[in-house]
């Protein structure tokens, strides 16, 4: 399989024909019976060291075969050795941060902007990390002997700014670069190909694609994956098998959804740029379904006035969503940090779905007229 579209449909499903199945089986077992305690003890020792136990994981906190299909498929799409799935994007990021602390390198260098709760988790030191905030140019100088990670998000939540991942990876030297690839998805960008060693997703967004499943995943090399599995085993932030099933199903249509929504987003961005109420439009150079824009007047009035577009935080669904980052996705940050990260109070974030472009525009246009003050 060489093409991404083909991988998206077939990865994680290679054995289904031999099993006589068309859809992936959902294994809801919480425990895996065995009459051989001594073998179980040996397998628990392996799990405690971070080994993936595959089909019979002793207990569901150690692994799940349905989730394993999603993990294999996502790794194939991102071009990584493997991936490790979690209950949410924040659980996935937490495991990465805890892995740094556990390895004795609790310091991270982070490039703003990042998703608001990521920023908060890193800045608060809740998990025992210290942080140095840096520009891309300052990363090499900010790295210390106890630096365990460099963290960036590109395109970034919420203003869609991008970093040169290849240049950033070079500046990191031996320190692993973690890129949050939630907004780009492997359809538009595969950070591992550009030197990133760790790729994090909130799978809740485009990977699931329908607003009905929460999950997170880390695509990485086997060594870091072992550290993540140890942490997942001990802390329990596992992805539910039904979520694993839905995420695998979501991957099959990911390229089609991303390409269709990207075309609509491009057209909406053009129309927004010409609208008298809009002062600035943000679009990633790599394209994609996200458009952010700043308005004259009251951004909250625009959110309150949409009738077709869904007024909700989150992104990546089949329907178009709008939210006000200063009020919701980045509300947890201090105003000073938000402004310092380039996140204007006038900014609105639009996640474009699969509706007709003219229907979406008619709704946005009437809502924008409500923002005039
Ligand atoms: C609870 S706030 C945000 C959820 C999600 N990560 C977003 O950016 O929309």
UniProtKB/TrEMBL annotation:
<comment type="similarity">
    <text>Belongs to the trans-sulfuration enzymes family.</text>
</comment>
<dbReference type="GO" id="GO:0005737">
    <property type="term" value="C:cytoplasm"/>
</dbReference>
<dbReference type="InterPro" id="IPR015422">
    <property type="entry name" value="PyrdxlP-dep_Trfase_small"/>
</dbReference>
<dbReference type="GO" id="GO:0004123">
    <property type="term" value="F:cystathionine gamma-lyase activity"/>
</dbReference>
<keyword id="KW-0663">Pyridoxal phosphate</keyword>
<dbReference type="GO" id="GO:0018826">
    <property type="term" value="F:methionine gamma-lyase activity"/>
</dbReference>
<dbReference type="GO" id="GO:0030170">
    <property type="term" value="F:pyridoxal phosphate binding"/>
</dbReference>
<dbReference type="GO" id="GO:0047982">
    <property type="term" value="F:homocysteine desulfhydrase activity"/>
</dbReference>
<dbReference type="InterPro" id="IPR000277">
    <property type="entry name" value="Cys/Met-Metab_PyrdxlP-dep_enz"/>
</dbReference>
<feature type="modified residue" description="N6-(pyridoxal phosphate)lysine">
    <location>
        <position position="205"/>
    </location>
</feature>
<dbReference type="GO" id="GO:0019346">
    <property type="term" value="P:transsulfuration"/>
</dbReference>
<dbReference type="Pfam" id="PF01053">
    <property type="entry name" value="Cys_Met_Meta_PP"/>
</dbReference>
<dbReference type="GO" id="GO:0019343">
    <property type="term" value="P:cysteine biosynthetic process via cystathionine"/>
</dbReference>
<dbReference type="InterPro" id="IPR015421">
    <property type="entry name" value="PyrdxlP-dep_Trfase_major"/>
</dbReference>
<dbReference type="InterPro" id="IPR015424">
    <property type="entry name" value="PyrdxlP-dep_Trfase"/>
</dbReference>
<protein>
    <recommendedName>
        <fullName>homocysteine desulfhydrase</fullName>
        <ecNumber>4.4.1.2</ecNumber>
    </recommendedName>
</protein>
């Amino acid at each position: 399989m060489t093409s991404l579209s083909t991988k998206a449909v077939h990865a994680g499903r290679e054995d289904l024909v031999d099993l006589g199945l068309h859809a992936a089986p959902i294994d809801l077992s919480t425990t895996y019976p065995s009459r051989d305690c001594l073998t179980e003890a040996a397998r628990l020792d392996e799990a405690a060291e971070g080994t993936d136990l595959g089909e019979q994981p002793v207990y569901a906190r150690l692994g799940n075969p349905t989730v394993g299909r999603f993990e294999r498929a996502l790794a194939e799409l991102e071009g990584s050795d493997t991936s490790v799935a979690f209950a949410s994007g924040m659980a996935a990021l937490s495991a990465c941060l805890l892995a740094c602390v556990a390895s004795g390198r609790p310091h991270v260098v982070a490039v703003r902007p990042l998703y608001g709760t990521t920023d908060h988790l890193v800045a608060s030191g809740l998990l025992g990390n210290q942080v140095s905030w840096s520009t891309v140019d300052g990363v090499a100088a900010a790295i210390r002997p106890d630096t365990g990670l460099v963290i960036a998000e590109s395109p970034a939540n919420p203003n869609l700014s991008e970093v040169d991942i290849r240049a950033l990876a070079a500046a990191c030297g031996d320190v692993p670069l973690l890129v949050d690839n939630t907004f780009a998805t492997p359809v538009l960008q595969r950070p591992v190909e550009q030197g990133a060693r760790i790729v994090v997703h909130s799978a809740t967004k485009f990977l699931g694609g329908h607003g009905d499943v929460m999950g997170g995943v880390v695509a990485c090399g086997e060594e870091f994956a072992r550290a993540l599995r140890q942490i997942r085993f001990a802390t329990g932030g596992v992805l539910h098998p039904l979520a694993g099933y839905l995420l695998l199903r979501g991957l099959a249509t990911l390229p089609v959804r991303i390409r269709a929504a990207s075309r609509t987003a491009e057209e909406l961005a053009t129309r927004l740029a010409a609208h008298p109420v809009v002062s600035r439009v943000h679009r990633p150079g790599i394209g994609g379904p996200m458009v952010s824009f700043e308005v004259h007047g009251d951004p909250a009035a625009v959110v309150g006035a949409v009738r077709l577009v869904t007024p909700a935080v989150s992104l990546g669904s089949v329907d178009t969503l709008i939210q006000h980052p200063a009020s919701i996705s980045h509300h947890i940050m201090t105003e000073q940090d938000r402004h310092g990260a380039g996140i204007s109070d006038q900014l609105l974030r639009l996640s474009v779905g699969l509706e007709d472009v003219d229907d979406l525009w008619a709704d946005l246009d009437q809502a924008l007229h409500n923002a005039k003050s």
